[in-house]
Design a protein that fits this description.
The longest helix is centred in the first third of the chain and has 30 residues. With 140 residues, the chain is an alpha+beta fold. The chain has 3 helices and 3 strands; from the N terminus they run ααβββα. Helices cover 54% and strands 17% of the residues. The protein has a 3-stranded antiparallel β-sheet with strand order 1-2-3. Helix 1 packs antiparallel against helix 2 and helix 1 packs across helix 3. It is elongated and about 55 Å long.
Length: 140
């Protein structure tokens, strides 16, 4: 349920917060696993690479939280279920929800992780191979 009077930028900030929070946790978990696994010959390099991604997401989360404060937005709760990830939020006194379904959520997290790690994004499908003109993961 969208909050009346809420801008597209407000919804985009909430969506980004949800994705960044998850991405940051994945980076932190991966760093910990790389360090503790004993499998890597030079774990320091991989921890540094993934750690830089975690630092970037932490910085972006901090910036979004500052924007939340100026726009009077508060995340009440983020939950995960079989369908996807849902956030309950308060925006200028009104309560609303935003849900991102798993396929879109996972696709966006992978895309962001690649960007934060400095990896090239996979090429978009060619026009002749596209089945639909509708975006795969539209903004809610």
């Amino acid at each position: 349920m969208a909050v009346s009077g809420m801008s597209t930028e407000d919804r985009s900030l909430i969506r980004s917060y949800m994705l960044l929070r998850f991405t940051h946790r994945v980076f932190e978990r991966d760093c910990r696993i790389i360090q503790e696994s004993g499998v890597f010959k030079t774990p320091e390099l991989y921890v540094e690479l993934v750690g830089n991604g975690a630092k970037k997401t932490a910085l972006m989360l901090k910036e979004i939280k500052l924007q939340f404060a100026t726009r009077t937005i508060k995340i009440i709760e983020i939950t995960r279920d079989a369908d996807g990830v849902q956030a309950r939020y308060a925006c200028r006194g009104y309560i609303g929800t935003l849900q991102i379904l798993w396929p879109c959520f996972q696709q966006e997290v992978m895309s962001r992780m690649r960007a934060y790690l400095g990896l090239h994004l996979p090429k978009a499908p060619q026009a002749e191979t596209e089945i639909s003109a509708a975006p795969a993961c539209p903004l809610p």
